Amino acid sequence: MAQSQTLQNGASSRSETQQADTATQGTPSRSNGINQQANSKPGQRDAPSRDDSATNTEHKLSGAELKKKQKAEKAARRAQAKAGEPEAGPGGGNATLNAQGQGEGPKKSKQSQQEQRAQGKPGQDSRIQHKSSGSTASSAPRPVALRRRPSQSGGASKEPKKSDKEVGLFRHLYGQPRRYSIEGASKEVHPAVLALGLQMSSYVVCGSNARCVAMLLAFKSAILAYTTPPSTSLARHLTSHYLSPQIEYLKSCRPISISMGNAIRWLKDYIIKIDPSVPDSEAKASICSTIDTFIRERITVADTAIAATASSKIRDGDVVLTYAKSSIVQQTLLTAHAAGTRFRVIVVDSKPLFEGKNLARHLAHSGLNVTYSLVSAAAHAVRDATKVFLGAHAMMSNGRLYSRVGTAIVAMLAHERDIPVIVCCESLKFTDRVALDSIVTNEVAPPDELLLSAEPAMAPGQSSQAGHASIARWKDVPNLQLLNVLYDVTPAEYIKMVVTEYGSLPPSSVPVVHRISTERDVRV
Questions:
Q1: Which domains does the chain have, with CATH numbers?
Q2: Which spans does this entry mark as compositional bias, Basic and acidic residues (predicted)?
Q3: Which of 81, 134, 362, 397 has its CA 20 to 30 A from that of 175?
Q4: What is the per-residue pLDDT across 484-508, written as a single tens digit (0 to 9) for each?
């Protein structure tokens, strides 16, 4: 009886337990109901539809999944921007994601809509909500920054190239622009050489003899300030490492003349022959003393001898015509005037330098009768001349005269009228080069030097014509070029004689005199 009672109690307890489990499974808990109400949007009615609640539960994404999706969208946008493809419309993500989502159909669109609603729920993490809002804002259509290709069609406002303003026949003479400042100069260049270079480029120091003398004096100052580095000799280091930067700087300011080149070769030849055992102080003193001797013998004394010889060619009543300004011609005319010879001088000049103005002014102050004329009136001025005295930049080995541009015109006009043309030139200006014309070898100066400082005054009632630009703006005018060469070549048949420190000789004797003077320099 006791056993049956025990069995009844166990059965009843099992039945009570099963009933409790059944009630638990069939009745939703209060906590679940509260969570569902919290996850719903504020002010939104509960959706009674079973399908909608099932869809929300099935397609709701977690924070990690949203973050992964945002990274994929960002990477796709970067790839799209690099490829230059247009972005998708306002309907959503990029073209790549849309292409991937086309197979999912309406299910994918419902999922994306519910994701957007889920991103705005207040129950989510604030960090996830911030990233979601950024992704939504970034999904808006934005213009893709594409690179602009340069226009291939030539515009009318295209500026003329620099080469278009260079004369093709003289294009080989256009080099680096002339230096007008010490900016970028080597630190090895001496201050005296720096100052000389600027003076040469601005024509403060002008003329072959003046430039040569000024260069040697500047080199003299530089040599006095020179100190030989240890473990080397003055003869080797001075020429290659110290004088070379000085010479290159002068070349950048203006091309060196023939006389300057001969002087540089003589100076280098003298320095390399110095005995390395000689102390630096004695070697520098010897070099400076030799430079002074060179200037005195090859230029100063030579000019005196040439002036004495050439002045004897002038007779009373002569009309001497000269072109531009030459220091040796000026000294010749003053020597003849000091000797009591009465004669008249015609100075023919040309722009842009107008060197003849200084010559005419100096001769007039010395008491000579001077007539000043431009080269455009040279044909008229030559009619009254009885002799023509010309200076020289260099005498070429074939007997031709290399001098200031315009000299050949004056010599040609004098030759046509059988007027003797006398050239005064030191042997330092002789060279073994041969010149057939003034195209292969010349110096091209800046074209702007040809322009006047002001526009010419117009006559009353005269107006400028439309379409004609001012010459001052020649760089903006197409098909307009300016050429400013400084030298020309005079044929040897136009020259009667060449007066040097060795005497008067014909142009054909130039190579002989050049060889004699070079051998004398070697012996010195």
A1: 178-302 (1.20.120), 312-448+480-523 (3.40.50.10470)
A2: 43-76, 158-169
A3: 397
A4: 999 999 999 999 999 999 999 999 9
